[in-house]
């Protein structure tokens, strides 16, 4: 009886470890599904910052390019950017407060199980993130910047 229980325990642990390893590696190598040109479609204020509402609204209609050989955001461009995907699990336990580094802390889509990120780095500095976007839907991204959420939608693929 003890041996049967032990074997069941080992099987359960092996299965759980294998499933969690698959779940953790899921966002890696997904960057190619996000490549394209995105248009900023809305701006929402979530806290204070130095950017005025008028300045933030000027980004509406602006284009962000996430392509294998280039990244552009307004006037800034990075040739041969380094992209990294990551995933942050959001705890549903009572009393657990999410990090103020993500949008769930401010009440945006807090019912999600996880947040998937796309981080952009300059090729000669892969330690300091230039920019980070949250995947918020099918063909939709969002950037949190200086107290505003900038939501964008995919407009075209990379050429």
Automatic annotation (TrEMBL):
<keyword id="KW-0732">Signal</keyword>
<protein>
    <recommendedName>
        <fullName>Lipoprotein</fullName>
    </recommendedName>
</protein>
<feature type="signal peptide">
    <location>
        <begin position="1"/>
        <end position="23"/>
    </location>
</feature>
